[in-house]
Specification:
The structure is a homodimer. The first copy, chain A, is of the alpha/beta class. Helix content of chain A is about 30%, strand content about 25%. In chain A, helix 1 crosses helix 7. The interface between A and B is large, with 49 and 49 residues.
């Protein structure tokens, strides 16, 4: 049976927060780490436009999330239009008891609007902490926070941790390591500790 | 006068190696860090297809590199079709005395094919080290290597360092810091040292 991952996007998405996940998750297929691995970008239109003006084609509608083993909610200004859009939210049939739910940065707001963050441990993404608290979440100042089937990540580069979590849960630890090794800087991350 | 950056792409590009740079470089404009900042994706067709099957629209032809202040060469399997394509290479009028030249992973091969790596210090991207030596380069096992106007980076996540270098050279150190801070994981990179 196929493992199906839906990456949710929308207009005004943050480029890296979609494309980095797309790249990392597809490496599972490119490297032959799973026999039947299907990553789809889901939206409400045939194409969506990023906050910087880049167009991305979708592979299906958001209603498809109910057939996914895992749903990854990307981030960006566009999430603010979704959280008050009842007709949009009613199409998102997410099941936190049988699906992995992964939210990148402000993608967490969509989980909150769906009522899925009540008493959940979540990553404290600074620009939206107030809203996360209003949704009943318990904030943790960590890049990646996992609470059962739900994982939240803060800031663009934490997407590496979030995709890694999905790969480990859906395939195994070896697959996660192979994907991570393929993107790690030659001299590790020491060069990136710039502050 | 506008600061113009050309990001070179082609079919079979590695997704993250294009899109992460695109995102980071565009943050300069999104955050108002430069008045006249123009990032263009340049190719030979109206759209190019990534190695994982994602389509990206180009904003101009590769001949435009000669009007760019900086040229960023992305990476991927597709670079192998370019290095022996004389008509392609002849359209790439790169000037290492007046332009910043930045190569991500196998994008270095294109610089080598243009004869621009002779006696240059470059990052030793493992899958292509043999070719880099054939092009006369001196390999350094570092994530980012800068040699005058030329910088080379190895592996996907080193793109953060390469884009940072461009932003610091073309704007200033403050702009670089603002962009980097916007993508850093909440708990720094310590979580990413997984090996």
């Amino acid at each position: 049976m196929a493992t199906k991952i839906g990456i949710l996007t929308f207009d005004d998405f943050t480029d890296a927060d979609l494309f980095l996940h797309w790249d990392l998750l597809n490496r599972v297929k490119l490297y032959g780490l799973s026999n039947n691995w299907n990553v789809k970008i889901l939206g409400t239109k045939e194409t969506h436009l990023s906050v910087s003006g880049l167009k991305v084609e979708t592979h299906g509608q958001i209603d498809e999330v109910d057939s996914c083993n895992a749903v990854l909610l990307t981030s960006g200004k566009g999430t603010r239009n979704i959280v008050n859009n009842d007709s949009y939210l009613s199409r998102l049939n997410l099941d936190p008891t049988s699906q992995l739910l992964a939210a990148q940065c402000s993608g967490s707001l969509i989980l909150g609007a769906k009522g899925l963050l009540q008493n959940k441990e979540v990553s404290a993404y600074p620009p939206i902490t107030k809203h996360l608290i209003e949704y009943g979440a318990n904030l943790q100042k960590k890049s990646l926070v996992v609470d059962g089937y739900l994982a939240t990540a803060s800031s663009c580069l934490s997407s590496v941790l979030l995709s890694s979590w999905l790969i480990e849960k859906l395939v195994d630890e070896d697959a996660k390591k192979i994907v991570l090794e393929s993107i790690m800087p030659l001299s590790g991350f020491s060069d990136l500790n710039l502050f």
